């Protein structure tokens, strides 16, 4: 077989994600003997328009809860909504059997929010703009 061609692109569509993600998922499933990955979202809906305005999304897999995205509009901040969304996300992770959770945020986003809710920083990496960091946090879900 000739050497495969390697392509660099900024276009990643569903087909590409399915090929790469599906291949990795099959490899993991063969290694551990089961597949338990499951998406998770906790949504915030505007009570008047009924539109989704924010929330948290991620997934659970192999005993770990991944919090991938978390956004609230300014109008929903400072009212305990974020704390409620995070608590419900963590509770669903526990219900699914997750022992730990992981998230990364940016230093200007919400690291202190997570720390106030029992998350522990385990690393940070500089990013742009200068003086900014990606902050990695974890939480032991069996402790609550």
UniProtKB/TrEMBL annotation:
CDD domains: NAT_SF. SUPFAM superfamilies: Acyl-CoA N-acyltransferases (Nat). Residues 1-140 form the N-acetyltransferase domain. Keywords: Transferase. GO terms for molecular function: acyltransferase activity, transferring groups other than amino-acyl groups. Gene3D superfamilies: 3.40.630.30. This is Acetyltransferase (GNAT) family protein. InterPro entries: Acyl_CoA_acyltransferase, GNAT_dom.
């Amino acid at each position: 077989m000739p050497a495969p061609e390697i392509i660099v692109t900024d276009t990643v569509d569903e087909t590409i994600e399915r090929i790469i993600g599906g291949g990795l998922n099959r490899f993991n499933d063969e290694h551990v003997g089961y597949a338990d990955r499951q998406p998770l979202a906790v949504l915030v809906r505007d009570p008047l328009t009924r539109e989704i305005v924010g929330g948290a999304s991620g997934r659970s897999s192999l005993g770990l809860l991944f919090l991938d995205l978390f956004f609230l509009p300014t109008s929903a901040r400072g009212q305990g909504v974020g704390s409620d969304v995070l608590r419900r996300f963590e509770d669903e992770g526990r219900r699914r059997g997750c022992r730990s959770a992981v998230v990364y945020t940016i230093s200007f986003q919400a690291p202190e929010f997570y720390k106030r809710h029992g998350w522990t920083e385990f690393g940070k990496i500089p990013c742009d703009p200068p003086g900014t960091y990606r902050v990695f946090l974890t939480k032991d879900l069996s402790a609550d």
